[in-house]
Amino acid sequence: MTTSQISLKAKLLLVLFGTVFGVIILIVTFQFIPLRSKGTEFGSIDEIRKAMLSDNAPEAGELDSNQSISLRGIVTPHQNDRIIYTLRPNLDLRFVRANVKTNSCGMRSPERPIAKPLNTYRIALLGDSFAFGWGVEEKETFAHRLEENLNRLTKGSPRVEVLNFGVPGYSTFQEVALFEEMGLDFKPDAVLVYFVQNDFGMPFFIRSIDGSGGILSSLKFVQLGRQLFQPQEMDQKINEMGLDPNHALRDLSKIAQQNGLPVMLVINPRADWQQDLKKLWGIKKDIGIHILNLRDPLMEIISRRKINETDLTLSYDPHPSPLRHAILGDILTPYFISSLNK
Question: What's the count of helices (H) and strands (E) in the chain, helices before strands?
Fold first, then answer.
């Protein structure tokens, strides 16, 4: 056997070993990855809508194992493909161990007239389950805390309203689309975006509508395999679809500038939040989005009050606890004081 033949054989063995090793890694990864297939997986937006409206889907009043309404009971399909679904209006039920009410416009906020009353300052809050207040009472959300703090400081002049447009499972592009379609009608004075790092992945869709109501990524096996081994290819696909947060935030900036609105962006203040900020290449000073650093004041409060970090999340879920919501509301308050005093 010649040297070239040995070299070719060695290369083929390396390729074969690499392929087998990659498959083994993929199999092992699937044993532990939290987005493992569960329940129904939807291949298109129309499939999601059909599942929500299907006669075989659970009724809106059906309870899950925790005697709470499932996700099926609080959402409704929307005709806009960039919104996909919204919260049902006029809800009054129990969801994820908390009482949930929505107003006639489908917001987890008190009833608000669309026409802004005189001497009123409105903050439009955009976000997903963190902004919505997953697992906590409405009065325990940072949206309510922020509104309460500001009204106490202004003594009701102006009257401050935080309009909570947060919807569980939303990605940034859905938040922006909903704001453009409905939020602008309320004539807000400022926009507050609560950004969570899962927005860098594929959009979050409802995968298990008929059981626990869990919200999981709708990645297929092949797509997940590509993400594990070729993340740049997946990122490029998301960018081409226009579903990445950078495009969405730039769209929001244009909308805000056209309407003379300041936009404040909060990145979920986990330890490596600045890594998330670096990925937001579309956020530049010239587009008028102000980054709020909540991590430093959060850690200062944790240290000063000697708070156990386990008390900052729900006991059964990684979402913020009432304590963390209260701290976030307090930290956000000073950012709006100067605007209110103008």
Answer: 12, 11
* Pairing, β 263-267 against β 190-195: parallel
Residue whose C-alpha is closest to residue 338's, from 252, 264, 286: 264
Alpha carbon 224 to its chain centroid, in Å, reads 20
- Dist. CA 95–CA 118, nearest whole Å: 35
pLDDT per residue as tens digits for the range 168-205: 888 899 999 999 999 999 999 999 999 998 777 655 44
**What is the value of pTM for the model shown?**
0.77
Asked if residues 175 and 128 have their Cβ atoms less than 8 Å apart, the reply is yes
- 185, amino acid identity: D
Beta strands in the chain (DSSP E): 75-77, 85-87, 92-95, 98-101, 120-126, 159-164, 190-195, 204-206, 215-217, 263-267, 289-292
Check the CA dihedral 162-165-171-177 and report its sign.
Answer: negative
